[in-house]
Amino acid sequence: MLFGKKNSATLRIGGMHCEKCSAKVAAALKAIGVKADVDLKLGRASVTYPDKVGMDAILNAVTALGFTCEEIK
Hints:
By secondary structure, this protein is α+β, with helices and mostly antiparallel strands.
C-alpha cells in the first residue's frame, strides 16, 4: 500500500564542525518526517521525504539550528 510519493534530494550544509552538529541536523530532519543521511566530512545530507514535507520546511529546519543549507541540483 502506498502512502504518498517519496522525494529525494541532496543538501549542502555549512557550519557543521563535529558529530554533535551532524546529529542535531539529523534529529531536526527526523522530527519533521525526513529520513536523512548526514555526512559531516562532505558537509552534505541525502534526504528522502514525503510530498507533505516540502523543501522549504527541510531548509528551514536546518537553518533554524544556525547552519546554512541549500539543495544541490
